Amino acid sequence: MILILKPNISLESREYKRLEGHLQNLTNIEYRIHNVQGAEQTLTEIYLIGSTSALSLDEMRSFQAVDKAVRISQEYKVLGRHKDDSRSSGFSYNGVDFTQDNLNVFAGLCAVDSPESVEAMMSALKDHGQVCTRMGAYKPRTSAYSFQGHGKNCLPYVFELAGKYGIKVIAMEVTHESHVDEINSALDQTGRPTGVMLQIGTRNTQNFELLKSVGRQQEFPVLLKRGFGITLDESLHAAEYLASEGNQKVVFGLRGMKTNIGDPHRNMVDFAHVPVVKRLTRMPVCIDPSHSVGARFRSPDNILDVMNVTAQGVIAGANMILVDFHPDPNVALVDGPQALRMEELPTFLEDVRIVREAFEKRVDLFK
Ligand code: PEP
Ligand code: MN
């Protein structure tokens, strides 16, 4: 059961103390308090765990401190969408909204290789009105001998250039909790010119200790990629690790599944799950067409597969697109073969705009 308290209620108030006294006396029930920081108000949610079936919703609602009480109908306690659950989806971060009702494009470098590539990318984004990007500094690679990313050394110039070109949010993978500290220090050192969305990659979807430590911090939102060889349910449970530790600012990322059945694509495209994740949870849903397709295949009508699968995700209501670009894919140090080229950015964005408009018309049709 979730108790949503009246907005901005103090945990020192008499109303809250009365509720707290009641909760402490319940047998076989534990509770956890979560603070959800919104743009205008702070909401306190109390998660009751244990034998809650005997508790009465009406009794809980009768406490003055309680605004709403919701019975949890399924397993994703914090991020799940429960019956009669009117809690909003998503969050705002550094002036950008992430919800199940909007769409943000994160076009950028799979891996940061040089300040020149970063600058070329960010300046193209600015020219096209974009305020988000992806920049990989810590790269988990199959081979121990492949380029592992420039790590903390590239962060100062990445953040400074982001400030210069008005980038507000950078999606950046972390593979160890120390990377979060390195990102924080580099942001401090550069005067916090931008924001970072911590990305947890498909190889770490079930790295529970990483999830817990990233979940304990509430400064940065998180993009959790679906595990490439586990069920959707298992990946959604992984997202819940972040939220149960206190960080509810989570975007769920689809990036294709590892199976040869998807050949010739690098992964089996799974964007039919966009509406499924939106139905089961309140998380905004991201698609990654680049890592799904993994190459620059082109259909007879001259449309790249990367763009076709992007359209599939967007027509189904995706809320974020993470897509690889590079000014010169031939020299990219990671994933050059799947990168779009800078001159393809306007067409890509226009295609996304057309399909998003079609999605919105579909929503109106079914209203
Ligand atoms: C990436 O986005 O750079 C990446 C490595 O993705 P994934 O974890 O989905 O393979
Ligand atoms: Mn990659």
Going by helix content, strand content and strand pairing, the class is alpha/beta
Ligand roster: phosphoenolpyruvate, manganese (II) ion
Low-confidence stretches: none
Q: What's the CATH class of the largest domain, please?
A: Alpha Beta
State the separation between the terminal residues, measured CA to CA: 30 Å
Q: Write down how many β-strands occur, each being a DSSP E stretch of 2 or more residues.
A: 15
The mean pLDDT is 95
Gross morphology is globular
Structure annotation, total helices = 11
Reported for the largest beta sheet, the result is:
9 strands, parallel
Q: Could you say how many structural domains there are in total?
A: 2
Q: Quick one: CATH superfamily of the largest domain? A: Aldolase class I
Helix content: 25-40%
The radius of gyration is 21 Å
The CATH architecture assignment of the largest domain turns out to be Alpha-Beta Barrel
Q: Can you walk me through this structure?
A:
This protein has helices at residues 14-25, 57-61, 115-127, 155-164, 177-189, 208-216, 232-244, 274-280, 289-293, 305-315, 345-365; strands at residues 2-5, 29-37, 42-50, 66-70, 91-93, 96-98, 104-108, 132-134, 169-173, 195-200, 222-225, 250-254, 285-287, 320-326, 340-341. The protein folds into 2 domains: 2-72, Alpha-Beta Plaits (2-Layer Sandwich), CATH 3.30.70.1140; 92-365, Alpha-Beta Barrel (TIM Barrel), CATH 3.20.20. The protein has 367 residues and is an alpha/beta fold. The strands form 3 sheets. Strands 7, 8, 9, 10, 11, 12, 13, 14 and 15 form a 9-stranded parallel β-sheet that branches. It has a 4-stranded antiparallel β-sheet with strand order 2-3-1-4. It contains 11 helices and 15 strands. The structure holds phosphoenolpyruvate (PEP) and manganese (II) ion (MN). Phosphoenolpyruvate (PEP) binds at residues 110, 136, 173, 201-202, 225, 255, 288, 291. Phosphoenolpyruvate binds at residues 110, 136, 173, 201-202, 225, 255, 288, 291.
